[in-house]
Amino acid sequence: MKNLLIYFLLLATATVFAQSYKITYLKSSNGTVVENQDQVIVFTTTSQTLLTTESIVNKKATFPFEQTLIDRNTNAFSQVAVLNNKSTIAMKDSTAIAKQSFEFLSDTKKILGYECKKAKTIVNSNTIEFWYTADLKIKGSPSVLGQNLGLVLEMVRNGNFVVTATKVEKITTIPGVNVSQKPVDALTYKDLLWKSRFTTIAVFKDQIINFSDESTQGKAELSGAKSNDSILRFANGTIAVRKIKFPEIKLGSQLFVDVTEQSNGDAYDRTGAFFLIPTDKATSFLDGLKNGVKSLPIYTNGNGKEYQGVIATDTYNPLVELMRFFTPFGVKQYNTLQLKDKTWADNVLYRQDISDMRTLLSGKEVYIGITIGNYDKGGHKVSANITIHEEEESKAIATQLLPLFCTNNIMEMAGQEYGSMFNSDKGLEVSFKLDKPMKHAQLRYITTGHGGWENGDEFVPKKNTIFLDGKETFSFTPWRQDCGSYRLSNPASGNFPNGLSSSDYSRANWCPGTLTNPILIDLGDLAAGTHTLQLKIPQGAPEGNSFSAWNVSGVLIGE
User: What does the pLDDT average to over 158-175?
Assistant: First the structure.
């Protein structure tokens, strides 16, 4: 978005000074000039210095943009940022410039005919060198750093990134900057500036996911979200769903989901999902939520069980897992269970790139849900956002997406069957039809094993094999061996006589307190027509009251 209005708030009436200069700088990296750069411009006098850019001076800056004004009488600087057409923020720092320290070196060289000396400093492990001159009797720098050295004509970071003055002009006036708005503290300033660079869609805020007969079943209720939108609750409160309107999302943009979770009473590791409900066919998973699992299409594999809503049909698409995550053992609620030399986390943050899901979201109004399977009245507290980060240039190619299967029984607390269909030779099988050929097809596949104790599939590596049109196309054994890395998120995890905690044990592609990343399986170019995809896993047999199951989901993505 081009800034045409607020520019005039920042660049106020020009101020006349007897000795004023404009310095233009060029950025280069590893000896090559940075392409399409917005050149740094410094206006400086004996009493003040303005750091700005070429686009701002030419009234072509895009949001957000900022300028820095140094008051040389007080050695303080103010930063002013324009976030959008309606919002401008400012901050003031009176100490940072005075606290800067440098090592002064004996090297000298000429830049643009001016004799320059050399100084250097180290900031966050970065070595920064400054070439500055006293010939012009004024001070200034293309950064807040080095403002009091003299007039800095070149900055070199780590020997390879260089900002060099290309022109020094004597002028009679310099732009003024309006810093009259009330300043905010430095951290708030940085946070607001950072967040203005992308779009945040708040989906859930401090949402309780619990099991309670008092939960409103399938009816709207007010949530803790900042907006007045309502939340639909299902499966005795273990599922929350909200309708969200997404803006048009440019091709090549990056999309992220972040979910924050903490225990509100439940002490156990639970399966969670942040999901989308496709509603483009006659029946959707939303019908099952509203009317019960018996209203969903049934899948059978000959083992005598009926699996509700797990595969795509001509009239139904299964839900799409945007993220699958697993709660740790009681983070926050059970932090009182102290152990020596252990400081428990306050919550768990799960963050995942879902850019490949753009087609399902862009410009659409969709149902987004979150679930944590549990039988606890306190349950869990979650917040969830989707952020959209535009890319200036991208070679991304538009894709089409087909939801194929999802055996994650998020309606467990409303009677949905576990994904135990892999105890037969048929396993899971789904047919799909392509009206047009699909190039570079991939299966976005999420898989985790569950159930049993020592001999259950949760704790035993099992090979997953995928067949396309009767031919084996991919196989691997999903397994996580890093679960002990997340011990500080698991205060209520049980401790065993062998010195291990339950949360330490390796599992079938998940750990308590982590998310499970999808993998992308190449399927090649697919011809138009009907295809069959089959998934086989050597599921373990039941042992007493314990049984194994697999939560798998798959979305077909292609050009």
Answer: 94
